[in-house]
Task: inverse folding
């Protein structure tokens, strides 16, 4: 209800499109449906996806550490220049 009037709800079928990034595309490559499956295939898929998540998170952390190191080095150089 809006302003004491009934308002039609949006249809359930109309969903917002999902934004695709590189990670989701990689996951889609791993998770695909076959007619015949081997035992424990879901477990292996989950492990592979977890491995990819850890790798992506680790890359993000490493890049952040590098950025912080650069900032500290630049700050040290500025301090060194002011001391002279």
Result:
């Amino acid at each position: 209800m809006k302003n004491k009037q009934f308002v039609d709800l949006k249809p359930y079928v109309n969903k917002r499109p999902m934004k695709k990034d590189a990670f989701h595309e990689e996951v889609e490559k791993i998770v695909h449906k076959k007619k015949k499956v081997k035992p424990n295939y879901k477990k292996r898929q989950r492990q592979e996806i977890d491995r990819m998540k850890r790798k992506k998170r680790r890359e993000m952390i490493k890049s952040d550490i590098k950025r912080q190191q650069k900032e500290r080095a630049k700050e040290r150089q500025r301090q060194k220049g002011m001391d002279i």
Notes: The mean pLDDT is 84. The helical segments are 22-30, 41-83.
